[in-house]
Design a protein that fits this description.
The complex is a heterodimer of chains A (269) and B (449). Chain A has 269 residues and is of the alpha/beta class. Chain A has helices at residues 2-18, 29-42, 54-63, 77-85, 115-123, 149-158, 174-183, 218-222, 241-252, 254-262, and strands spanning 19-24, 46-50, 68-71, 90-104, 112-114, 140-144, 169-171, 187-192, 201-202, 204-206, 229-237. Chain A folds into two domains: 2-97 and 232-262, Periplasmic binding protein-like II (D-Maltodextrin-Binding Protein, domain 2), CATH 3.40.190.10; 98-222, D-Maltodextrin-Binding Protein, domain 2, CATH 3.40.190.10. In chain B, strand 8 and strand 9 (245-259) form a beta hairpin. Classes of the chains: A alpha/beta (269), B mainly beta (449). The interface between A and B is large, with 41 and 46 residues.
């Protein structure tokens, strides 16, 4: 009987040990899920994926409750100090890029904006569409909530580190922004390109003060003419590299990068 | 089925359940509904109930740590060094102890956007002082409209400087410096605090103001005078764009005091032979109602840099002001003193350097602190009219910290203590044999949740 007990325990423990846990960014979530789904089919291992946000993923990695943290922003200094305190040497891997689209209601006549105009809208300096060549209509601004990595990237890269207007409506998820902008005529928001759908319209964006305007697309993201693009990260503990690496290698492989493109993210060069 | 078989089945079931639960799956024996729709409904209802329970459970967090240590002093009694975790008994030059054994419970009630509106924190030290002692027990309410303003009340940290409020479970040295221990013995106090911290969307998000009124007697003693201590700190924190440098700092102010224990009012004077002495200024009975003022001014700064060699952290803090004390102690009195009160001008500072080596488990620590409890006397001016509590000390600490994982830390640290040479018997030169070597093991749980 003892042998049976040992065998059962060993069997169930092996099942546990083989499962790599990935937790973090809601932006990375659809990509991580698809990559994990294909990887699990390959028989090289098993990866389970959950969201929660970039900060939650990194906190879980520090605490040892996940094996991989996904993040749509770089790890912060406070988090690095906690990593040090927890004796963790981590590794950062960029698995893909994500182009952020600035979206409006399809009926909005405005087709394009400069970075400075977008900054003005999100900081509250520009409050009516007629100030940027549109109709006389109040601008309703949607953003992600403050804990989101996307929120921070947009603030750093598009808003030139300026602060969001207090009137900005913070949404808990990217899908909620798409839905809200699609239902509100004067609305504007930003989402990962993978989330765009027919209920909203993408704007062309200029980063050279109006000389050229670029529409976000896979082609313009890949040839780097579209400017609002950011890397997506995976972080893991170097100590666990042997267990993690097959999945990382899969994500970076040709097959993994095909998945990236297929679901609307930008593959690595 | 005999008893042995029953036992075996129970064992198998328990092991299977244990392993199944450890992968986060829950299996229950339930009656099978008749249709797929029923099954989905049942599953949905059960998941909803589970989620509801989880939301409740997630509001409560438990964390804690235990510090067990062995210390070796240069001599029994280690004269001059009671700041390395308490004085050594006269016949003791080495000892085992549990320095701290903390358990902390935090209850967070958040709004729908994840902002914490109500927070209740209780922290106890369970064993190290021989009995269970409350360290923190406070509630914090943050305004649910702007989230800028908060009120804290109960037993909590005094918001002064950096080292006093920096957790002993995270600090890289075994103890706070002599200055912090003398000015803020026990660190905690009963009081009420007002906090202003702009929300993340604000351009002023980088600063925080904490200001409050406290008993000034610590959490183990009742207050004994009308005077409440007003303590404030204005702090800021920033990181660079690439998140490779973090810098922070603050300005602190303390306005408190201690009731006179006698009607005698002293001032420091210079004697004909050049020595300094406390001289009786007056003995009016009205002095018994007077408060000897404690006024501190503090400034602190911290920088952390991430580079190829690892994370480097520098911390510095300076405090100066006036401190009421007794003839034999310049520490903040926590009970009503029944003896003469002396007001000393003091100043002190420390500098920390923590170098993580190549982003590994290994860390080197160097700390230097200096504290002059009475800046109006120095060297041979300190004679028999004054006491060892007027002597300036400096301490150089060198240590090695091994952060094994999120649970275990191992620390080796040595304090090299130096006192100024005075005219006081026993302190005419540096007391050489008062250094202390500490070996510490720390076990932590749920720290980063």
């Amino acid at each position: 009987m003892k042998k049976i007990l040992i065998a059962l325990f060993a069997l169930t423990s092996v099942v546990n040990a083989q499962t790599v846990k990935l937790k973090g960014s809601d932006t990375v979530l659809p990509l991580a899920q698809k990559e994990a789904e294909q990887f699990n089919k390959s028989g090289k291992g098993k990866v389970s994926v959950t969201g929660g946000g970039s900060g939650v993923g990194i906190a879980s990695l520090i605490d040892g409750t996940t094996d991989i943290a996904s993040s749509s922003r770089k790890i912060k200094m406070d988090e690095k100090l906690k990593m040090q305190d927890a004796g963790k040497k981590y590794k950062e891997v960029i698995i893909s890029k994500d182009a952020l689209s600035v979206i409006v209601h399809p009926s909005n006549p405005v087709q394009q904006l400069t970075r400075e105009q977008i900054e003005g809208i999100f900081t509250g300096k520009i409050a009516n569409w007629k100030e940027v060549g549109g109709s006389d209509m109040k601008i309703v601004v949607y953003s992600r909530e403050t804990s989101s990595g996307t929120y921070e990237f947009f603030k750093e890269f598009v808003m030139n580190r300026k602060n969001y207007a207090t009137s900005v409506l913070n949404m808990p998820a990217t899908g909620a922004i798409v839905q809200s902008v699609g239902q509100t005529k004067g609305a504007i928001g930003y989402v990962g390109m993978a989330y765009d759908n027919a209920s909203v319209r993408q704007l062309k964006v200029s980063y050279d003060k109006g000389k050229t305007y670029i529409l976000p697309s896979m082609a313009t993201a890949k040839n780097k003419t579209y400017p609002i693009i950011r890397p997506l990260y995976l972080y893991y503990n170097v100590k666990d590299e042997a267990k993690i690496k097959p999945f990382i290698d899969f994500c970076l492989s040709a097959v993994g990068q095909q998945i990236v493109e297929k679901i609307g993210y930008v593959p690595l060069d | 089925m005999n008893k042995k078989n029953t036992k075996t089945i129970v064992k198998i079931t328990a092991i299977l359940l244990l392993n199944v639960l450890s992968v986060g799956s829950f299996a229950q024996i339930i009656e099978m509904p008749e249709t797929l729709e029923d099954k989905i409904d049942t599953l949905y209802n059960r998941t909803e109930a589970l989620m509801s329970d989880m939301d409740y459970i997630k509001k409560l967090k438990f964390s804690g740590y235990v510090q067990a240590q062995y210390q070796l002093a240069d001599t029994a009694g280690a004269k001059g060094n009671s700041y390395a975790g308490g004085a050594f008994d006269a016949n003791v030059n080495n000892r085992f102890s549990i320095r701290r054994s903390r358990i902390k419970m935090t209850y967070d009630n958040n709004d729908e956007f994840g902002n914490t509106i109500t927070q209740i924190v209780m922290q106890m030290d369970l064993f190290s002082s021989g009995t269970a002692v409350i360290r923190d027990f406070y509630g914090k309410f943050t305004d649910p409209w702007t989230h800028w303003f908060g009120i804290k009340a109960g037993a909590m940290d005094k918001p002064f400087g950096y080292e006093v409020t920096y957790s002993s479970g995270t600090r890289e040295t075994p103890e706070r410096g002599r200055m912090s221990q003398l000015l803020f013995p026990g660190e905690k106090d009963f009081g009420a605090q007002f906090v202003i911290q702009p929300v993340k969307q604000s351009r002023f998000n980088f600063f925080k103001l904490e200001t409050g009124l406290y008993n000034g007697t610590g959490v183990l003693n009742n207050d004994f005078d009308k005077k409440k201590d007003w303590i404030s700190r204005l702090s800021f924190f920033k990181s660079n764009f690439n998140e490779t440098v973090k810098y922070s700092g603050g300005l602190s102010y303390y306005n408190g005091g201690h009731k006179y224990g006698t009607k005698n009012n002293y001032e420091l004077s210079t004697l004909a032979n050049g020595a300094k002495s406390w001289m009786l200024k007056d003995s009016n009975t009205t002095n018994l109602t007077k408060i000897g003022k404690a006024i501190y001014y503090g400034v602190d700064a911290q920088v952390s840099i991430d580079w190829k060699g690892g994370l480097s952290t520098f911390r510095a803090e300076g405090i100066m002001g006036q401190q009421p004390g007794t003839a034999k102690s310049s520490a903040t009195p926590r009970t009503l003193v029944a003896e003469d009160l002396y007001l000393r001008n003091f100043k002190g500072a420390y500098l920390y350097f923590v170098q993580n080596i190549l982003h590994t488990h290994h860390n080197i620590i160097v700390k230097y602190d200096i504290y002059d409890p009475n800046t109006d006397v120095k060297g041979t001016e300190i004679v028999s009219n004054l006491t060892s509590s007027d002597i300036k000390y400096s301490t150089l600490g060198i240590g090695y910290l091994f952060n094994y994982d999120q649970n275990w830390k191992f620390l080796i640290y040595k304090d090299f203590v130096k006192n100024e040479s005075t005219g006081l018997s026993g302190y005419t030169t540096d007391v050489k044999k008062d250094n202390v070597l500490t070996f510490r093991i720390q076990y932590t749980f749920n720290k980063y949740q």
